[in-house]
Amino acid sequence: MTNHKWFNHLVLYLFIVVIPSIVITSTYMQFVLERERDRIQQSAQVYASHHAMNIDSFIGETIGRLESMALLISLENADPGRIEELLVGTHGKDDRFSGFYWVSPQGDILLGSNQLPQKINLMDREYFKAALSTKKTTISNAHLGRVTGRYIVSVATPVTKHDQVLGVLIGSVRLDVIQEHLSALKKEEEITVLDGTGQELFLIEKKENDTSIAATVATSRIPWLVTVRLSNLSLEWRFSVLLISIGLSFIITHILFLLIKYYQLQRQIRLEKLQNDAQKMELIGGLAASTAHEIRNPLTGIKGLTKLLSERHQDKQDQFYFSIIQQEIDRINSIVSELLVLGKPTVHESSENNMLDILAEVVPLIESEAHISKVDVVVPTNLSPIFVNCSRDLMKQVILNLTKNALEAMPNGGRLSITLDESYGSCVLVIADTGQGIPEKSLDKIFDPFFTLKKQGTGLGLVVCKRIIEMYKGTISVKSQVDQGTQVTVTLPLDG
Q1: Res 163: pLDDT
Q2: Pick from 238, 281, 84: which is nearest to 167 by CA?
Q3: Which CATH number covers residue 167?
Q4: Can you tell me the distance from the alpha carbon of 443 to that of 256, in angstroms, rounded to the nearest whole number?
Q5: Which parts of the chain register pLDDT below 50?
Q6: 246 and 218 in one domain?
């Protein structure tokens, strides 16, 4: 039996604590990881957009500088001396440029801020041809400069007059300057910039983590792609989240486990109490059935002899004693009658009875007792018949017992109310008083055999009532407050 209990305990622990903890932990981990990945992804997107905007701003400033120089050249009517002076003077003031060059419409580099190693023609460069055809500023893909040998991006701005191209001003933009500019703005991210051909221009702080999270944004000024990578969640971070989730899930599931065990314990206590009450009632019933008749036999003889002696001794004092003996004999007889009902209530035959008729038969007895105690009695009138399958005598006994308790609770007067009604296929009888009430701590014990709050009580009245009501598949409940009164509700199934 002990092994069986331990097995049940282990199974319950498995299904309430272990399995739910695993499910909660995995679900929580998945939720947190997805939330953190989304946060990292959003951060990478923000960083990529920020760096793309910085590149666009850098290129925009570069184009603006070059177009301003082109305007000056146009105003000087493309004078070679003034052009060379402008190219050399500007080169030393802006380190983003590796050089400036003045190119003829035929593609020959005529002047430059750097010394030309040889004659160079740019008609093979797509960006140069695009600048001539569109007469607008164009930007090349990354390439090795023929003059400096550096990795550069060339910006070509045509100089026109009367819609005629006088020449093309070219500025070579150093990629290392752009890289330094982005490096100064970066935080913990890796930055990769690709040109329009997919060629990598530069990579800033490569992440060794292959599971890093990336976001890519295109620049608007030039066809470049800026990719930002952020480190994914570390193993230490994941482990800490795992420990937290395991701790939380175990706390939650253990609380649930303890609540269930508490409920099971309370349920077991209630079942054991019911079993003990049933065994107690069975024992009391058997004892009552076996002894009640034995008590009544000598009691009958005592009663007869007492009556004979009372007729023979007419002294006033003797008669007083005989009256007391007679009252006590009647009281014993009443207790024996209740014991018989408690022991075997099924000896009474049941039939279809109108509860209104039963109530009408006992009301005169109730009113006579109430008159002595100065209690007002309110009973139902003008009701439709309510038929219940029961024993007429036993039901009278129930009503009389309950009303007797109510009257005894109002020694200084009060109000006794009896109501009878139908509700959801049941007959509901309510007996309410305005008496002393029952303490809350005693309400759970009032149906225990021999428990009573009365000095002369036997503790069997309510037990007998409950036994009779339950015999007819009904229920009886009591609500009470001290000094406010008591309400007893009896529910019986309707006949048919």
Answers
A1: 82
A2: 84
A3: 3.30.450.20
A4: 31
A5: 1, 346-347
A6: no
Contact present, 153 and 173 (Cβ < 8 Å): yes
Residue 347 has a pLDDT of 47
Indicate whether 147 belongs to any domain: yes
Q: According to the model, what pLDDT value does residue 458 have?
A: 67
- Whether 245 and 314 map to the same domain: the answer is yes
CATH number at residue 395: 3.30.565.10
- Examine the domain organization and report whether 43 and 70 are in the same domain: yes
Residue 294, pLDDT score: 73
Residues 6+ apart with CB under 8 A from 25: 242, 245, 246, 249
Which residues have a Cβ under 8 Å from the Cβ of 183 and sit 6 or more positions away?
191, 204, 205
Residue 281 has a pLDDT of 66
Instruction: Write a three-state SS string for the chain.
Output: CHHHHHHHHHHHHHHHHHHHHHHHHHHHHHHHHHHHHHHHHHHHHHHHHHHHHHHHHHHHHHHHHHHHHHHHHHHCCCCHHHHHHHHHHHHCCCCCEEEEEEECCCCEEEEECCCCCCCCECCCCHHHHHHHHHCCCEECCCEECCCCCCEEEEEEEEEEECCEEEEEEEEEEEHHHHHHHHHHHCCCCEEEEECCCCCEEEEECCCCCCCCEEEEEECCCCCCEEEEEECCCCHHHHHHHHHHHHHHHHHHHHHHHHHHHHHHHHHHHHHHHHHHHHHHHHHHHHHHHHHHHHHHHHHHHHHHHHHHHHHHCCCHHHHHHHHHHHHHHHHHHHHHHHHHHHHCHHHCCCEEEEHHHHHHHHHHHHHHHHHHCCEEEECCCCCCCCEEEECHHHHHHHHHHHHHHHHHCCCCCEEEEEEEEEECCEEEEEEEECCCCCCHHHHCCCCCCCCCCCCCCCCCHHHHHHHHHHHCCCEEEEEEECCCEEEEEEEEEECC
| Owning domain of residue 389 | 347-493
My answer on whether 224 and 288 are in the same domain is no
Q: Report the Cα–Cα distance between both ends of the chain, in Å, rounded.
A: 46
C-alpha to C-alpha distance for 404 and 398, rounded to whole angstroms: 10
Closest CA to 476 of 495, 458, 463: 463
Total count of domains within the chain:
3
Q: Does residue 333 form part of some domain?
A: no
Tell me the HSE value of 366 on the side-chain side, using a 13 A CA sphere: 27
CA distance 386 to 423: 11
Taking a C-beta distance cutoff of 8 angstroms, is the pair 131, 156 a contact?
Answer: yes
